[in-house]
């Protein structure tokens, strides 16, 4: 998990909502249509209630021209940042194996 300037990773929906969509300047309904998803699906992503799936990453990556990998990495970084603290005690009990 990499922190940029001490800040935790951002949910991809926040980047879409705060930076990408305003720069595109089109209504969310039109963006949903262009992505081939329902408005509800887009709003769930923008509201950070749903993750970027591989299918959505392919769609958003095509729309933005920056590829699916960017969006999947962003989601993975966010997921690790959220999950690691919740699992800290459990992970402490798991030994790290070493080669013989």
TrEMBL record:
PANTHER family according to UniProt: ANTITOXIN HIGA-1
Signal peptide (residue range): none
UniProt-recorded name of the protein: Putative Xre family DNA-binding protein
Source taxon at top rank: Bacteria
UniProt KW keywords: DNA-binding
Claim: DNA-binding is one of the keywords in the record: yes
Gene3D superfamilies noted in UniProt: lambda repressor-like DNA-binding domains
């Amino acid at each position: 998990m990499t922190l940029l300037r001490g800040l935790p990773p951002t949910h991809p929906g926040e980047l879409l909502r705060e930076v990408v969509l305003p720069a595109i300047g089109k209504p969310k309904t039109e963006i949903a249509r262009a992505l081939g998803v329902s408005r509800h699906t887009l709003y769930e992503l923008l509201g950070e209630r749903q993750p970027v799936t591989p299918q959505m990453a392919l769609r958003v990556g095509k729309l933005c021209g920056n590829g699916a990998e960017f969006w999947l990495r962003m989601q993975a970084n966010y997921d690790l940042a959220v999950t690691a603290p919740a699992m800290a005690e459990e992970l402490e009990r798991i030994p790290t194996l070493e080669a013989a």
